[in-house]
Amino acid sequence: MILFYSFLVVNFLAFFFIGYDKYLAKRNKRRISEKTLLSFVLIGGTIGSGLGMLFFRHKTAKSSYLLKFWTIITIQIVVIIGLFYFGILNLA
Asked: Could you tell me which of 4, 79, 2, 13 has the C-alpha nearest to residue 45?
């Protein structure tokens, strides 16, 4: 159950920081680094970050960011499939 709540918190924070970075960008303020935003994706905030990008229309035209974003997602998918394939992750 703790893992579930951790997942929710990380995704909420990822969504929030994408929105906050958009807010800062509109006001020409100091921005949140891409490294920080992508770190949230890496630690499990993929859904929150993706929804934030769509909702706030932020980082959707920056191809270098999108390449890193989709690379992380691809790696996550491969790891999850591998965990299921080798029986390490079992939902039964």
From this structure: 13
